[in-house]
Amino acid sequence: MNRSLKNVKTLIGLFFTVSFVLFGYFGKNEMMNETDSRNATMVSDTQKEVMSTKKIAITFDDGPHPVYTPMLLDGLKERGIHATFFLLGESAQNYPDLVKRIQEEGHLIGNHTFHHTDLKNADTVLLHQEVVKTNEVIEKITGQTPQYIRPPFGSHKDSLEEQTGMLVVLWNIDPLDWCSEDAAGIVRQIEKNAKDNGIILMHDSYKTSVMAALTAIDDLQKEGYEFVTVDEILFE
Ligand SMILES: [Zn+2]
Fold first, then answer.
1. 104: domain range?
2. 182, 203, 218, 231: which one is catalytic?
3. Cα separation of 111 and 103, whole Å?
4. Could you give the number of structural domains in the chain?
5. What is the pLDDT of residues 205-220, one digit of tens each?
6. Are both 103 and 93 inside the same structural domain?
7. CATH number for the domain that contains residue 182
């Protein structure tokens, strides 16, 4: 009798022990799953942030320059970045190998007139000398006619697009790199004004501009900016 009572007690004890262990195991597991799913939500939010990158285009006017354009192209290649170059017809004619290299390395080429001419009062004759002639020089080297024009000083008549059949591309971030020899100051100006769908105006005819551009690219990439050519901003 005592022995069977002892057995019953042992069985009851065993039942509670097993239940306790099982509850502990599954209960804990459930809590872990909840924590895991919370973590998973946090991860996907972070991923979303990374995926919705901001687009920005960096553009270089007045080139190609025999010394600073190759320096810039090396830096862009190292970083896997594509930029937009608004070339002067006169310089393109003088440095065709550089124009070819710009194209071969995947950058976008636009027209910046032949002699850096103000197009504000341009008549048909001037447009031919400055715009058409520049397109012809670039086309002869690259096999492609530029579709984008950046008028020097941003100065042009409203009818320029209609008259040339080209798209005018201005800018919305201007660090005034051409009048500063302070690369760090130029970088600060770019980064302070950087924004989604921004178009940065720079010039590859100065060493400080090239140095500043590469530093700003590194910094802005860390901030989640994706560097694209202007067509990707205009036709997004
Ligand atoms: Zn210019």
1. 54-234
2. 203
3. 13
4. 2
5. 999 999 999 999 999 9
6. yes
7. 3.20.20.370
